[in-house]
Amino acid sequence: MRLHEYQAKEVFADAGIPTPAAELAASVDDAVAAAEAIGYPVAVKAQVHVGGRGKAGGIELAESESEVREVADDILGMDLKGYTVERVLVEEAVDFVNELYVGVTMDRGEGKPVAMVSTRGGVNIEEVAEEDPEAIAREHIDPAFGMHPYQARRAVYEAGVDRDIANSVARVLQTLYQVWEDRDGSDAEINPLMVTADDEIVAADAVLNVDDDALFRQPEMAEYDEEGEFSEDELERKADEYGFDYVRLSGNVGIIGNGAGLVMTTLDLVDYYGGEPANFLDVGGGAKAERISNALDMVFSDENVDAVVFNIFGGITRGDEVARGINEALEQFDEIPKPVVVRLAGTNAEEGMEILNADLVTVEQTLEDAVQRAVGYAEEVDQ
Amino acid sequence: MSVLVDEETRVVVQGITGGEGKFHTEQMMEYGTNVVAGAVPGKGGQEVAGVPVYDTVEQAAREEDADASVVFVPPAFAGDALFEALDAPLDLVVAITEGIPTQDMARVNRQLRETDTYLVGPNCPGLITPGEAKLGILPGNIFSSGNVGLVSRSGTLTYQVVDNLTKRDLGQTTAIGIGGDPIIGTGFVDALELFEADPDTHAVVMCGEIGGEDEEEAARYIAEYMDTPVAGFIAGRTAPPGKRMGHAGAIVSGSGTGTAESKIKALENAGVPVGDTPEQVADHVEDLL
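^ inputs. structure came back:
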């Protein structure tokens, strides 16, 4: 899960990392009141989970009450890459002379955490990493010990950070690592970490992504997750309620399957046979009838979907359970809203195929046939 | 011949008293796996599926001479269970559990490097040597004994590919599901090394997916060290960047690393034919044999 900027800043500030004075606002009047309290100039920043907010017009500076009114009015309610902005962070604009980058993430290849420092902050660090990998100092951390203070110092000196601020930057990095570890972070990032004319350092932006699998032991982060859900895609929110792994895409062939790799493969085959996948939906292992019926409900409620392909290879999932779920879901309708193609294999697949109501669904024997049939249906509807 | 497991492997099931643990213990035994014990803290002295349960893995290893474990412990306690298995010590640990926090796995991974134990998983279906033993949750009936080794990051995709192989009488030496998490024990290269060393494995199928760079690393290994031919499949060609496709590890990063395209290219450059569909993978294996 991703924290919003304002949430990540709260966590960082609590840990002792300097952040600018700021207030969250959901209306233009609240934004003006916040700016008056903080003092001008302020930055007004859209709180949505979208990268490149600045370039997309989601961050504006304001030097007076009338300007705050104007920019807050522009940003609140604006559509940023598919997400509606419902809150802005009104923040003291920092007068900086330099922008740094500090971050902590898990290096999958090495299987251990890595801390990073660069003097080229303020821009997309992934671009820097590609163009000029030398510009980022990296320090791998032994997870058994955590970050030793010398490692933070080494990364900071290695990156070429000005000696006058090296110690303060190292302290910020050390704290950031601790937050990352304590909060089960997947990524923690400050970009930019601003340096002022009198060598103060301030976290002007903040990223904290938390490992979904660790939310059970991070109740405060889980609360942030609930509080931050206001701008998510409606179908993705529904998928959360049902507990599905779901990703919405832009095509018109709805896809339901079990197991991430097999569902991805089904998406790829839809594309291979000339169709366009509408979604990724993994019902997981051992799905019972109700779950199957919820999955169909999800995909039917996506208005882009013209046809559905159901691909189940049972290991711990049983074909008869799946078939019952499909029947139950479809029998509720007087008319089937969208054609459904089903392919069952593995555990109890034969029983399942007998149970399936052939008046309601098209049954295919192989994955390839099922996908081609669904792509064909979607094309017919499209015309 | 086979790799990692055979009918001699003596298995302790960690978490045998849970619903999943008990069910799959019975399934494994029905398949022929030599399950000799269970280990669950506080449940020592009980019996499940006809095998004795011990409080600790070490007791099970000592009393029943277990040399491998299968872990069905819930995610919150699974990291600890893996440390316990590594400390016993055992030759092989298979972690089925899905949803172990990544930082726990980083610590386990660090400990793993100090032992000679093979860890398979977590978040995997396990492994099977057809006709001899299965350690995990794979449906035994779709596998058949033969000369093809298989290694895959995904469970149900493995079943799909195996089904295509078996239907053409292309049986398997051993099939290993290595799991879809960002940090896993046995990786592609480890598994390929084992198959390369196995005289009965005449071809290998490798099923990868988006995320990370393990497939690229495997391609380099294949080009440099392998005589056994390899056929490949990569899932996630249509996955958009920045979206996690079910598996915690299946994500194309914003900077464009971990794409299916890069993996397919790396494999093809290493002389590995990559199928566009699971059916085509079986075609390639037929050609290679």
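Chain A touches chain B through 55 residues (CB under 8 Å). The first helix of chain A runs from residue 5 to 15.
thumbs up if we can close this ticket
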